[in-house]
């Protein structure tokens, strides 16, 4: 795994790296200078088999949506290359190693745990984060039971208050009841926070009725991050308006949830949430087996 290219956002705070695997795939990694911390958002797989309809990773049109999982060594090198390139290995600001790039981490759980454990022991101030579609609640419990030596926030893609609507957005996922129970187990067992991500899609999941259903679904005090959707011509959605987003937040907060509006960094260079994708090099293109 080595750095192939990098691009910078207009404000210079976000970099998107393309890194080449030994077998010729180009995976993407994001670095964000977040003021009081560095964030490295890494990919766990080449492509993603979950196929979320609002995500560029899940909606490739070339029938090669998923190629392979990355090994623990590849995950570690993917991040260590960025650390070296930024010169931050002994910086006094902590590094957040965030498994939120391309791929579903719970489908590559052993490698992801090994990599996060490595970062926890190599960098005393390191923190971890992992985002999942909720595909296997049992693996969320496994994350808690494995006692990974790094403080690790769990983020869960919620995106809808009912199983019916959620299945239309995330084709492969478990029931909300099972995911909520597993998240509660994780928070209790590890003492680490759990956040729920909700991307507000215009006319799909942004109505007041959806906000009220979330209040009925989630325990009081649950933290929801309302992500602004990064519009993409490949995807059939548009972001909710700013006014809709503000009123959605108000309804959630009046109902006892903690709601936070969030805009991802680097969306102008395709480095934001749901924008990372892989590419193939000539090595792969010219190989008849792939
Ligand atoms: S949102 Fe995550 S799980 Fe869904 S397709 Fe994209 S990378 Fe995969």
From TrEMBL:
Source species of the chain: Candidatus Lloydbacteria bacterium RIFCSPHIGHO2_02_FULL_54_17
SUPFAM superfamilies: Radical SAM enzymes (SSF102114)
Named cofactor requirement(s): [4Fe-4S] cluster
Short name of one Pfam family: Radical_SAM
This protein's name: Radical SAM core domain-containing protein
Any one GO biological process: rRNA base methylation
Gene3D superfamilies linked: Aldolase class I
Keywords: 4Fe-4S, Iron, Iron-sulfur, Metal-binding, S-adenosyl-L-methionine
Boundaries of every Radical SAM core domain copy: 34-268
Record-linked InterPro entries: Aldolase_TIM, Methyltransferase_A, rSAM, rSAM_sf
GO molecular function: 4 iron, 4 sulfur cluster binding; catalytic activity; metal ion binding
